[in-house]
Amino acid sequence: MFKNRAGDGRCNLCGAQIARLRRACSPRMSQRALADRLQLFGVDVDKNAIQRIESGRRFVTDIELAALAAIFQVSCDALLQPPDQPAP
Description:
Layout: H1 15-24, H2 31-40, H3 47-55, H4 62-72, H5 76-79
């Protein structure tokens, strides 16, 4: 058993919410556009990192989580909600 993984083997709790929020943007935000916006917050990630975060294959730092919450204008807690619950 791996340490620091959810029961389903995912490396993060927020990936599904990030994907849902990104797709809910109007107009729809691409993974590349999200990576570009994170760059403006000083978070150095690329499109591939966003893809791995959303699929649960990459850990998310607290700095990245705070920047993502700011971009989507939600709390960090909202990003950590189970994927079947909408972010508050």
